[in-house]
Amino acid sequence: MVSGTVGSLGEFGLIAALTARLPQHAGVLLGPGDDAAVLVAPDGRVVVSADVLVQDRHFRLLAGQGAAVGRKAAAANLADVAAMGAMPTALLLGLVAPADLDAQWLLDMAAGLAEEAAETGAAVVGGDVTAGPLVVLAVSALGNLQGRTPVRRAGARVGDVVAVCGRLGDSAAGFALLEAGLGDRHPDLVAAHRCPRPPYAAGPRAADAGATSMIDVSDGLLADLGHVAAASGVRIDLAAAALPPDERLCAAAADLGLDPADWVFTGGEDHPLVATFPPDASLPPGWRGIGWVHAGEPAVTVDGATRPGRAGWDHFGESR
To answer: What is d(CA 33, CA 127) in angstroms, rounded to the nearest whole number?
Structure first.
């Protein structure tokens, strides 16, 4: 345990305390401590993604929740790498923090970031710190395609099967419960919001099985498949019967007077992967079919019709 604030540690004391919580792996030739890290890149290509989490926008500074915030920040980036069909190799952290922040919260966050990365075989290899009025986590992720062709959003073809791997709606339900002060009734859903569990290995498996397009669901199933439809120039139709809310979501929705299907179709931050596969392909273990790709103007429909309401999260507005 570390007592005191970020300011009392000072910049270099903070960096030393953070890096002490960041174990490395064999693919890191040079880790934190120099102007830049050096990594092995056996594929000759590097997948790169970045994501930003802002205090009071994406998380709150709750006591004892630093590690969960770190894991959530890592998951958002690692899932993007997996959605390209790559295996994560490293994370970089750009950190903004106020001087009066409890240093232990920040160190717990770094430990959570490192633990989530380690689950994929990745390491946190460096970054930067600076002072500011709020905590901001700017995370960059690197990945190794291991000889695969990257799976893009633009590859969906007419006749393809749409499939998903991972849970949908849990994080959105957990957030709604917390906002209503009912988090203690459904702790598993709250845990899913605070610490999502993306199916990282499913991305490379999908690529190996011939996935034609892929994306992680960070803003909502309809919204994110909308990116695939637009990039591929196709219409995607989902089958509502293939996406029934489970008993946990139904129970939480009953407590809140809401429709659990809204969480399934428009809730984000669970980071499951959704992909399209040729109609004759065998879906990898853990993947399940939820729709089809059709010719037509780019759109996402459910049982042939546009679903009313918002499609998912929009950082600069209330709906899409």
So the answer is: 10
